[in-house]
Every structure is written in structure tokens, then in C-alpha cells.
Amino acid sequence: MATSPEVAAVVITPEEFLEHWQGHRRLTRRVIEAFPEESLFDFSVGSMRPFGQLAVELLSMAEPMVRGAATGEWTELDRSGIDSREKVLRLWDESTRQMNELWPKIPVERFHETITAFGQYEGPTYDLLLYVVDNEVHHRGQGYVYLRALGIEPPPFWVRD
């Protein structure tokens, strides 16, 4: 079934997109909580980065990307001093709150506009946002491997509430 050029098919609304993403973020938060404090920034497998560093990377992407999409202001997270589970979780919760506040400010037409995030990543807004979600899922998978290597059962991946 073809659609006319004047009518765009909507598969997912911006609100559904955000809820899906926040489901991933709730699960990733539980993965962060599952790590022993002493392992979050020190344990890794092979040459991969510790999960604490990956969590900080996720923090540096999620809220700043939403803020940029909503306002056109591209500010980077100051990563200095983020060196404990408590700090990561506090920033995680704050960034979640900020994302929820900023998301409705993204004009719906902007999702299909080409933007340049952080002065270097060009693409449709929706694609850049999906990249951030994909990156989180990828790194959370690394976290699952680390937890299992530490003898810890990770949270069920299908529970996102």
C-alpha cells in the first residue's frame, strides 16, 4: 500500500519514542546499580573500557543530544569528578528529568531536519537520537557481560518499567 506524497506515515510518535528510550534508561540504571562500587570503574574484560566509563559516555550523549535537538545549544557534559556509582546515578536521574522537560520542546518537524550535533555529527535529528539509544543498548550489553564475569546476575533485559 503506497502513501500519497502529502501524507507521511507515522510509525511512532515523539512521546512513544521518549517512553521507549526511557525504558532503556531505566534498565541501564538498574545495570549501574548492580555493579559493586569497587568494580564499576575498575573492572573490564579484555581491552574494553570499564562500565563506569561507558555510563559516563552515555550521560555525555543523552541529555546533551536532547537539549541540542530542542534548543540548538550543544553543550558537552563536564566528565571530571564522575568517579563513583552514587555520582553516576545522581547524574543519571538528573539527566532523565531534564530529558523529560526538554523533549516536548523539540518541534515535531525537527525530527526530520538535518542538524549538526556538537559541530561535527550531521544527520536527521531522529537518526542522531536513535544512534544515542543504539549506543546505550550496545554498552549495556557490555555491562551484562561484565556483571556475569563478576558472578552477578544482571537485571532481566525485558523489564523496562
Mean pLDDT: 94
| Shape label | globular
Enumerate how many helices there are, as a single number: 5
Strand content: under 5%
**Given this structure, which CATH class is correct?**
Mainly Alpha
Helix content: 55-70%
The CATH topology corresponds to: Four Helix Bundle (Hemerythrin (Met), subunit A)
Order of helices and strands: HHHHEEH
Q: How many strand elements?
A: 2
Give the CATH architecture.
Up-down Bundle
Query: What is the rounded Rg?
Result: 17 Å
Q: Which regions have little confidence, pLDDT < 50, spanning 5+ residues?
A: none
* Domains (count): 1
Distance between the termini: 35 Å
Give me the secondary-structure category.
mainly alpha
Spatial order of the strands forming the largest sheet = 1-2
CATH superfamily, called what?
Answer: dinb family like domain
Biggest sheet features: 2 strands, antiparallel
Task: Give a quick summary of the entry.
This protein has 161 residues and is mostly helical. It contains 5 helices and 2 strands; from the N terminus they run ααααββα.
Fold and architecture overview:
With 161 residues, the chain is mainly α. It has a single domain (14-149), classed as Four Helix Bundle (Hemerythrin (Met), subunit A) (Up-down Bundle). The protein is built from five helices and two strands. A two-stranded antiparallel sheet has the order 1-2. The model has no long low-confidence stretch (mean pLDDT 94).
